[in-house]
Structures are given as C-alpha cells and as structure tokens.
Amino acid sequence: MTVAVHKPHPHDSAPLHVSGKARYTDDIPAPAGTLHLAFGLSPAARGRIRRLDLAPVRAAEGVVAVLGADDLPRPVDLSPAHAGDEPLLATGTVHYLGQPLFLVVATSHLAARRAARLAGIDIAGEKPVLTIDDAIAAGTDLEPPLEWRKGDAEAAIAAAPHRVRGRIEVGGQEHFYLEGHAALALPLEDGGMEIHASTQHPTEIQHKVAEALGLPMSWVRVSVRRMGGGFGGKESQGSALAVACAIAAWKTGRPCRMRYDRDDDMIITGKRHEIRIDYEAGFDADGRLLGVRFAHFLRCGWSTDLSLPVADRAMLHADNAYHLPHVTIRSRRLRTNTQSNTAFRGFGGPQGMMGIERVIQHVAATLGKDPLEVRRVNLYRPMAAVAAGEAAQTTPYGQPVEDSIIDALVDRLAREARYAERRAAIARWNAGSPVIKRGIALTPVKFGISFTLTHLNQAGALVHLYQDGSIRINHGGTEMGQGLNMKVAQVAAEAFSVPVEAVRITTTDTARVPNTSATAASSGSDLNGMAVKAACETIRARLTRFLAERHQCPEEVVRFSEGRVHVGTNVLTLAEAARAAHEARISLSSTGFYATPKIHWDRTRGQGRPFFYFAYGAAVSEVAIDPLTGETRILRVDVLHDVGRSLNPAIDIGQIEGGFVQGAGWLTMEELAWDERGRLLTHAPSTYKIPVASDRPRIFNVALWDGENREPTIYRSKAVGEPPFMLAISVHQAIAEAVAAAAGVPFVALDAPATPERIALAVRNARAGENAP
Amino acid sequence: MYAFEFVKPKTVEEAVAALREGEAKVLAGGQTLIPTLKQRLAAPEKLVSLAGVEGLRGIRTGDGVVEIGAGTTHAVIARELAGAVPALAALAGDIGDPAVRNRGTIGGSLANNDPSADWPAAVLGLGATVVTDRREIAADDFFQGLFTTALEEDEIITAVRFPMPKTAAYAKFDQPASRFALVGVFVARLDGNVRVAVTGASENGVFRWQAAEAALGADFAPAAVEALAPPPAEEMISDLHGAGDYRAHLVKVMTKRAVAACG
Ligand SMILES: Cc1cc2nc3c(=O)[nH]c(=O)nc-3n(C[C@H](O)[C@H](O)[C@H](O)COP(=O)(O)OP(=O)(O)OC[C@H]3O[C@@H](n4cnc5c(N)ncnc54)[C@H](O)[C@@H]3O)c2cc1C
Description:
The structure holds 2 protein chains of 2 kinds.
Chain A: H1 14-19, E1 35-41, E2 47-53, H2 55-59, E3 63-68, E4 93-94, E5 100-106, H3 109-116, E6 120-125, H4 132-138, E7 146-150, H5 153-159, E8 162-170, E9 182-187, E10 193-197, H6 202-213, E11 220-224, H7 239-252, E12 256-259, H8 262-268, E13 274-283, E14 289-301, H9 307-316, E15 327-335, H10 349-367, H11 371-378, H12 383-387, H13 406-416, H14 419-432, E16 437-449, E17 458-465, E18 471-475, H15 484-496, E19 503-505, E20 508-509, H16 524-550, E21 558-561, E22 564-567, E23 570-573, H17 574-583, E24 589-595, E25 600-602, E26 607-609, E27 613-626, E28 631-641, H18 649-668, E29 699-704, H19 729-743, H20 756-767
Parallel strand pairs in A: 1-12, 10-11, 14-15, 18-19, 28-29
Antiparallel strand pairs in A: 1-5, 2-4, 2-6, 3-5, 7-15, 8-13, 9-10, 9-12, 11-20, 13-14, 16-27, 17-18, 17-24, 21-22, 22-23, 25-26, 27-28
Helix pairs in contact in A: 6-7, 9-10, 10-11, 15-16, 19-20
Chain B: E1 5-7, H1 12-20, E2 24-27, H2 33-38, E3 46-49, E4 59-62, E5 65-69, H3 74-80, H4 86-93, H5 98-103, H6 106-112, H7 119-125, E6 129-132, E7 136-138, H8 139-142, E8 157-163, E9 167-174, E10 181-190, E11 193-199, E12 207-208, H9 210-218, H10 222-226, H11 244-262
Parallel strand pairs in B: 1-3, 2-3
Antiparallel strand pairs in B: 4-5, 5-8, 6-7, 6-8, 9-10, 10-11, 11-12
Bound molecules: flavin-adenine dinucleotide.
C-alpha cells in the first residue's frame, strides 16, 4: 500500500490557476524604477542592413537606452547548439522578418514598444528562402543529409510483390502557450544577476546570461515558479528576453523586465517544424512491410537551434510501432528565412510517425484491407514473446524492442471501442448518406523515452526535512502546468510515508539545484522524481540508523509507514523523529542525483540504445466530414494509454486529453501562413485557430493501460508529456478514410493540417481522378 | 492611443453639426473604430459619440416592416427579433462574441461595410432601406465596394428598414479563428421575388448573386442552385483563409443551405 503515489491528487496549483492567484513571471511585483524592454524587429526576411538610424528611437518619450548589436558588451550567441548562428541582435545581415535588430529600454512597456517602431531601417533585401522547395533549390542544408540504413531497403522493395510510393506534407504549429515569453532581471549589489524567467531551461538561461555578461555561472541565479504552458517553445527561445534584460540591467543598474506581446511572440519565436516526407514501400499480400524508404525534408527556419535533434527524433520515430526489417531513412534539415523552428511536444517524433502511418494507410488501400489488419501484422513482437525466448526485433537504429505491449493494448482498445463493428456500421451508414461521410481509424503510438543527447539524462535534487517534520523539496524540473511538482511531491511524501500536504513545493532555482537539463523530452518526473527519491532515501537512512541506535535495535525494525515512524513497537511521528535527530546533530538535508542507466547513442551512424524504454498507446477516432464545405467533427475518441504504474492517474489523464486535443489541432485546424516576403500572416488568435473546449471530441473515453514499466523507473511509471500528442494521428487517418468514402475511391493522399479547404479540395480532386501526389 | 476631442451630442442634428467641424468621426459601439485608432489606421481629431443621441436605439415592427435603430446592438436584435424575424436574430446572435454583440451596433457595421461582415448580407438580401439624417438609401445603392458606402462624410445612419420577408435565412461559413464570415449567404423570399446576397467572398464586398436569384425565382429549392455554376473564382477573395475557388464553391453550398433553411 502506498500513501502518496499512484493516487489522483489534483494539481497543487489548481486553486491558484482558477482563482487567478497563480503568479507568473510577469506578475512578480518589480522594485520601483524597473525598466521595460522591447525589440525593434526586422521588416525584411533576408538582406544586408544598409542603415539603422536609432536617433528617433533614442529621442522618443520614456526611452532610457537603445542598444544595437555593437552596443553589447560582447557578441552574444543564443544558439542552444552553440552553432554560433543566433546573435541576440542582428549583426549586419537579417535572416527573417521579425528578427530582433535592436533593443529599446524604456520606462514602460508601452513606451518601449512605441519607440521600437521609430527606427529608420534600410535593408538591401535579397530574395528570401521561405519554403522547403526554395531551400532544396538553394541547398541551404544546416548539415549534410543524414542517412540511417538497416538491411537493404532498395533490394527489399524491388523484390516485394507490391509497392507504393507517395508524399505527405505536414504543416508546422505555433505553441500558443497562454502565457507568452517573459523575463525579469534584478542586478545585485556585487555585479551578480538574479533572473526570473518563463523558461523550461533555467540552466541554459543562466549559462547564456553568464556568457553575455562575462560572469561565472555562479554569479547568475535563475528561478522559475511556473509557466503558463511551454510545450517546448520555452526550451531555447526564452534566452533572448532573459539575456536582453540582464544586459540592460547591467548597463543601467536598474531592474529590467520584458514580455512579448502575443503578435511579437508569434512573429519572433520558432514553431514546430514543417515536414515533407517522400516514401516508398514494398510489402506482401498480408500488408507486411518488407522494405521502406523515407526521405524527410524539414523546414528549420533561420538558425540551427534544436533542429538537428528534432530532425533526428523524426527519424527515430519513422517506424512508430512497426517492425521494419529493411529500411532507409534520409533526412535533410533546411535553413529558411523564417522563425527558428524549435522543440514542440514530441520533438519531431510526431512528424516522423505521420510518414509510416501514411504508408500503412496507403498499403491497406492498395490491398483492399482494413488498415488495422495491416497495422497488426507489422507491430513489434510482444514483450511476452521476447520474455519467452524469442529474439527481440530491432528498431531501424538497432535498439531491441523488449518492452512492447502494443499488440495487447491495440487488441483491448479495438475490442472495448468496438472498432470492427463500428467500422462495418460506418461503411453501411456511408452507403446510405448522400452528403455527410464518416471515417474511423485506430493508430498506435510507440514513443522513445530519454533525451537523445545522452548526457542530458541526469537530474539533481535538494531535500530538507525540518525539525517539525515538514519537508521542502527542490528539483531541477520546471512546472508548466503538467503537474510535475505534484508528482515529485508525491514521491517525497511516499519516501517518508506522510501525506502529500506535508511536502512543500518550491520554485525551481539554479542556486539550489545546479546543472539541470531542460524540462523536456517527457522526462520531468522520470528524472527529477528519481533524484528526489534518492535525496529522501539518504535522509531516511540517516534517521533509520539514528533511531536504531537510540532504541538499541536492528535497522530492519525501523519502518516508515502510514504517516508514522515505527521503531519496533515504539511509534513516533515524523516530527518527533526529526526533532530527536536534529538534537543528536544528524543532518536532515540531502542532495539526490539520478542518471538514466543503459543508454548510449551514435547519431551519425544511427546506432545504439537512445531510449531507456518506450511508452505505448493507441486511439480510435471517429469523424464525420461534410465534403461540400470540408467541415469536420470528431464524434468519438477512445484512448488506451500506457503510463506504466501511474504516479498520478488524474494528472496523467489530463495530460493525455490535453495532448490529444493539441495534436488534433495540429492536424486539423492550426495553419501557419507567410506571404511571399516572408511575413507571418497568422500572428494572432484572429487568424490562427487553436482548438478550444468546444472542439474536443463529443465522446472522449480515456483509459490507462494496467501495467508497469519493465524498467525500474520511478515507481514503475512511464513518461506521459509527449506520447499522447501522437494519438491524434488517428483523427487525421479517420478524416482521410472519410474523404476517400466521399470521393468513392480507396485512397486519398491527404496532407496536414486537414483544414476544411484542404478536405473539400481533396474530395473534389479525388472525384476528378487527380489523386496521385 | 493619442489625443482627440470627444463630444457627446444629444440629437442627430447636433451630431451632424459636430461632424462638420474639423476631421471628425462617429463613434458607435467602437468595436471596429477603437481597434482602428489603436492601429493608427485612422486618426480623427474628434470623435462624435452616438451614445447620448436620442431615438437611435430600439426596434419597431408593423405594417410589414421592421425598423431597427442604427444604435441598436447585435445582442438586443438577437434577443428581440427571435420571434418576428428569426433570420435576422440568428445572424445578429452569431456575430463575434458576447462582448462584441453587447457593444457593436447595426449602424456601425453597415457604415463600416467590412467585406466579411454579416449585416450587409441581410440588408442587401432583404432589399432594406438605410435611413440617414437626410435621406433614404436603397440597399442596392448603399454598398459600393470594400469599406465604401453611399454615405457622405458627415452623414449619420439613423435606422434600417427591412421589409418583412415570407421566409428568409442566413447561412454563414465561419473563418474559424475570427468567426467572421468566410462566406455568408442571405436568401429571402419577398413578394414576387427572391434575393440572394453574399458576403465574405468577393473582392468588391457584398453582392447579389443574380443567377441564383433567377433560378430560385423559378423554383425555390436547393436543386435549382445545384444546376448553377458558382460565381467566377477570380472575382472572389483569395487569402490565407481560403483560395478564390474554395470561396466560390462555398457560395454555392451556403446558398443551398440557406434555401433549405427557409423551409
Ligand atoms: C472580436 C470581434 C469579432 C467580430 N466578429 C464579427 C462578425 O462575426 N461579424 C460581423 O459582421 N462583425 C463582426 N465584428 C464587427 C462588429 O460587428 C462591429 O460591432 C461592427 O463592425 C461595428 O459596429 P460598432 O457599433 O462597434 O461601430 P464603431 O466601431 O463605433 O464604428 C465603425 C465605423 O462606423 C461608423 N459609424 C458608426 N455608427 C455610425 C452611424 N450610425 N452612422 C454613420 N457612421 C457610423 C464609425 O464612424 C466607424 O467608421 C467583430 C468585431 C470584433 C472586435
């Protein structure tokens, strides 16, 4: 029996969120005299700065200082990859429309923004490289194309009895965190700097600020209480604001704060990578994939940013849950004169999966089979069979899949959601429905858990037990609404066997826990939970040793259970035990550390075990479309998702629902548009549509798979942040089924997002026989 | 914002007089004008508020006519006309969000003549009369292209007079993000004729789709529209929310829907 973990505790900040009391970075009361910052932005997507006249900006009301690239104490490269291609302020050339050119420091947010518009800017423009086609033509690869091979895909395809080939284009996605980017810098008396920032990566901010000011990292302290959403958009892109604030604070000696207006946020910051996938597959009469070839083309935007690992992860998920005996995956990472695309929930994984799921749909249509049948014959060999001695099948990158439960999970979901019956009923219904058509699809997810950059898979914690028995925990993860702090508090409460209310959760702070990794890659509770557990166990072991000695009994009889410390037949409260230990001069504070075992990875060869384990899930989605207008409705969704032994089922189900809806938004309604000059046209909610409560599926059944992680993770749970996002691929596939039904053809190559316009045109084109991509 | 003079006259005459002095603009619900000022797309020296002007608000029905004061908000219209002219009530009730509906007015919407606004479709579709401080303007003469109307600089709309239709319906396809009309079609059966007005679609603002009017005049049924070619795609708006041919296609689909909704 557990006291705190595996229980549905509500999010610790929920009452604060709903009552408006939750404090975000921009709500922190600033000292008198705080200055406000705004960037002046490039009006051109590509070219050379001929003239930048900042005199009118300096003369504007409320302006205290204006800084161009030459006014910085030293050149600042914000690149998280240390690529040297992401200056804080443009240096001579501009690379996208919206790139920060100069920094205005003023007495108010409004004064800074107003003044930022007054510069005289003259740019000798060049034709921007905007689209994937432009970039292919211009050859703007960030690095040479990466290719991973397993077996001989070309020969297997050539020898296969059936073949398909095609292309899918999948659009990008704006993060649309409800809280925009924000930072506050407080200069300290001795030249040090204290930063509050809305960031998933406080250590990176600390590092970049220290570098920009020429300070040791120990002189910079970064803290984050919470974010109003991050989704990957605050993994690297918060540096610009924090560094700008730090430099301005250092120059003026006054506190400085900055927040992006929503339009500026959308215009300045990067988004999910748009991708084009060309595919070719050879298969047998059962739909078994014999050989597959993928070519990925990613639109990366103007700087390297996190594009290489994002593109790698797209390749790493090109198999999704399917065993591909012979496969070649080639990837081109293309620089364009647009916002710097970056991390976004799934980190390229969702894009990679869209390719193989399209292949499956295409194969099934070619053979006249239910796509689920084709999926089933290709799923990885089950964990049970591997345990019984059969060889584990390997991924395209050579990692044996030892923990697959996807076959059983898919079977249970198909049964419980009555997939087969409903699919037959939908076919009948469609035959009798003159206009509206329905579609249903079941798609699986297998998502690899761990950062692919192996050294990031570590975490630290600092735990204090006070003499009154109360506990305060610090860890390196950041809270962005995902419930990390609650899960980690549950872990600490469990270690001491006290109610979770006894554990105090604090702001993430680089002065308390150093050298942290970003809260990303779904790893937050896996890594930080383990580090906190280790710290708690150290303290508990000290208490145990002390109590055993004091009571003259073996350590084995000291037990922490049901809110009490049992020493043989003596029963103490944790407060009594803590006070006694303190009086005996026992340390009640400890750090904890965790490094994920077993993983290693060689990205250039595409070989290794990049992932500690896989998280699995599947969804059945049923949609209806009106082919005349292209409107869609998600009628019903059933999800069965594997979170191992859930640390907190309430939070996990919330993450699954939210991830699904965000994924469905990506694939159905969220559409980014730029004009031919490279200006982002969709930079506000009036032009960019994200899903809202009324867009959620009408019937939405979410269940957790009843199992436990095969690997010894924190209480045998599994990561949940990203994997559910990809369950929404089922929506796209169901729409494609409905489009095919409406057009009266077996298969339609439907791109994403499947907006009403794209659906209506797909139906029309397919009816006219223009289906081939 | 920037400095401007603000006056709040009590009568239409005073308002018109105020408009004649200097560079002035009428302010009604401010749902369009205030954002325009904020973005510096207009910078009048003076705003003449209609908030205190008597007699601009309210709805009168009788003698086969519905007269709506120019200062009546979308919300009031949605509520009060639900029984008498459901098509107008439904149109009003689907504009923007509650905040916009509680502030924005029919007069402001018509004077603005946004190519994606809803009211122009109803006014043109019913062949209504726009009543101003000095004259009455037939709908067919009122709308003159994007953001352009027959109004003079100092002219104030006081009311809109709609004939009571036999049946009428408005079918709107939302631009999903802003919920303005990507395409909206108002169809009305009046004594002796059928009118079809389309908003959201055309480069020239609201227009009558005469081919559909003729077809529906002969046979008031969705099938009559089915046989028609859609309006020319090259005259339709092509933008990030939809290409011209998609909009042209939607005009036809929405017209059929409106006809079907007329029952
Ligand atoms: C978020 C949002 C969503 C919206 N969605 C929709 C939608 O879905 N459909 C839709 O149709 N509209 C929509 N609108 C626009 C809305 O209907 C506005 O209310 C309307 O366009 C203007 O009305 P107003 O009373 O606010 O006018 P104001 O903004 O006050 O004025 C608009 C213009 O009309 C002039 N004017 C105002 N009254 C008169 C008068 N009596 N005589 C002469 N000139 C006058 C003003 O001088 C100004 O030029 C939306 C607006 C917003 C902000």
